[in-house]
Amino acid sequence: MTNHMFQLTLYGRAGCHLCVDVEKRIHRVAEDIPLSLQIVDIESDMALVEKYMLTIPVVAIDGDEVFVSIRSVMSEAELRAELYRRIGEQSP
Questions:
Q1: Cα–Cα distance between 72 and 85 in angstroms, integer?
Q2: Range name among 38-42, 45-49, 61-65, 84-88 with the lowest pLDDT average
């Protein structure tokens, strides 16, 4: 395992049950993989509302938008696989 601390950003808004589900998944992954989570309420900025309203929840890893909820919402397994890929390890 790496010492790298991933910086995750979750873009969502109040009342979004999918956003809450994704946040819970991120917290479960954080039990095994070092990461910090910033939650951004898109309604705090009209530009964010315009950019993300139809695609939240959106998860960025180290500044890269990786999971955009257009067809499906990020699963815990998908997040783990992406983080392990980034540190060059096989997921357990």
A1: 20
A2: 84-88
- pLDDT computed for residue 2 by the predictor: 55
Domains contained in the chain, CATH given: 6-87 (3.40.30.10)
Q: Which residues pair with 58 in a beta bridge?
A: 11, 68
pLDDT of residue 24: 98
Helices of type H across 9-88: 17-30, 46-52, 76-87
> For the stretch 25-59, what's the b/e string if a residue is b when 16 or more beta carbons lie within 10 angstroms of its beta carbon?
bbeebeeebebeeeebebeeeeebeeebeeebbbb
Tell me the sheet residues that pair with 68: 58
From residue 37, alpha-carbon distances to 24, 46, 77 in Å are: 11, 22, 17
Structure tokens at 77: 């397994």
Q: State pTM to two decimals.
A: 0.91
What is the distance between the alpha carbons of residues 44 and 1, in angstroms, rounded to a whole number?
A: 36
